[in-house]
Amino acid sequence: MTLYDLLMNIYAEYGFSKEVTINVVKPGKSGADEIKQMMVDFRNNPPKELGGSKVCLVKDYQTLEAKYADGRVEKLNMPTTSNVLQWFCEDGTKISVRPSGTEPKIKFYTEIKDPSFKCAGCYERCTKAAEEKIEVIKKDLGL
Questions:
Q1: pLDDT 10s digits, 35-76
Q2: 125 near 133, Cβ under 8 Å?
């Protein structure tokens, strides 16, 4: 069995997942201010839907709160705070966003899941669908 075959078997057993990092560069002082404002805006007005799927949970590692779509709020048990937001969607999509600590950019870590993956023949279809979904998410976030 090749490594590729093993990966296809893992996808078939646990579901397909594609992860892509989106880097948005904002140079200079105005860029740093813009990134800071983006985080403020995302906190004050989190997306309700991403890539066609309802956001069902928002985790804010700065306030250490998890906010559910039904209004419930739970505390996150973390030793320290961090300027990170995570959005979890009903279809399993997860987006984590954080400003870079060393570069003039904000990073969006996307994870797209597709439970319809059944065999290696599904790989191309699932990959294409995930890439298309990521483009929709970029538009949803104004990127």
A1: 999 999 999 999 999 999 999 999 999 999 999 999 999 999
A2: no
Judge contact between 85 and 61, C-beta under 8 A.
yes
Asked whether 46 and 3 are in contact (CB, 8 A), the reply is: no
Q: Model confidence at 24, in pLDDT bands (50, 70, 90)?
A: very high
d(CA 91, CA 96): 16
In a 3-state reduction of DSSP, which class is residue 128? helix
Beta bridge mates, 113: 17
Secondary element (H or E) of residue 32: helix 28-44
Residue 134: name the closest of 17, 48, 30, 5 by CA: 17
